[in-house]
């Protein structure tokens, strides 16, 4: 009796909803090219997520810049401008895109958003942290890979630019 291998197309995962977390850095924008390419291939919806990181400011910082709520509102406004700039690019034509800005701890908010919105894949960039910083604190990408309930594609900053297949 001969057993045939399963049909490769049937075994392929279909990514219907892709989460693209961004901090608007060059590292995260490199991952965007991969996200868009996958979205076109699988006709996926893309959710773009930016997390305004919560921090405990030094009291001197508050004296200079005002109340914490005012500071976070300004961070949110800045993030909205950067998100709008990102969304103006032509590369999003013919794609189903939604954008979200949340205040919180990045890796926690990314994982929570992914679970709450049933994403099939997370595509994100990886920062080039120093070895000591990485050992002491880990990275957002590492924490997302460890805790996510779906596959995670981490894109490192390349030596060459991405070429759309």
Automatic annotation (TrEMBL):
SUPFAM superfamilies in the record:
Adenine nucleotide alpha hydrolases-like (SSF52402)
Residue ranges constituting the UspA domain according to the UniProt record:
15-156
Mind telling me which InterPro entries this protein's record contains? Rossmann-like_a/b/a_fold (IPR014729), Universal_stress_UspA (IPR006015), UspA (IPR006016)
According to its UniProt record, what is one Pfam family this protein matches? Usp
UniProt entry tagged with the keyword Cytoplasm: yes
Per UniProt, the keywords (alphabetical) are:
Cytoplasm
Task: List the GO terms this entry assigns under cellular component, sorted alphabetically.
Answer: cytoplasm
Q: Which locations, inside or outside the cell, does it occupy?
A: Cytoplasm
Question: Which superkingdom?
Answer: Bacteria
Asked whether the keyword Cell wall biogenesis/degradation is assigned, the reply is: no
Q: Which CDD domains match?
A: USP-like
Q: Which family does it belong to?
A: Belongs to the universal stress protein A family.
Mind telling me which PANTHER family this protein's record contains? SENSOR PROTEIN KDPD-RELATED, STRESS RESPONSE PROTEIN NHAX
Q: What is this protein called?
A: Universal stress protein
Q: Organism, per UniProt?
A: Candidatus Auribacter fodinae
Q: What is the lineage of its organism?
A: Bacteria, Pseudomonadati, Candidatus Auribacterota, Candidatus Auribacteria, Candidatus Auribacterales
């Amino acid at each position: 009796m001969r057993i045939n291998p399963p049909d490769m197309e049937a075994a392929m995962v279909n990514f219907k909803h892709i989460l693209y977390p961004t901090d608007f850095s060059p590292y995260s924008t490199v991952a965007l090219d991969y996200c868009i390419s996958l979205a076109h291939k699988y006709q996926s919806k893309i959710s773009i997520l930016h997390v305004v990181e919560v921090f405990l400011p030094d009291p001197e910082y508050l004296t200079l810049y005002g109340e914490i709520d005012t500071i976070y509102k300004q961070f949110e406004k800045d993030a909205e401008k950067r998100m709008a700039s990102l969304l103006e690019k032509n590369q999003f034509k013919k794609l189903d895109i939604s954008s979200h800005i949340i205040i919180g701890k990045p890796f926690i908010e990314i994982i929570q958003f992914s679970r709450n919105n049933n994403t099939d894949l997370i595509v994100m960039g990886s920062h080039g942290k120093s070895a000591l910083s990485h050992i002491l604190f880990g990275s957002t990408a590492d924490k997302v890979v460890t805790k996510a309930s779906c596959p995670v594609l981490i894109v490192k900053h390349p030596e060459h630019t991405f070429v759309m297949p």
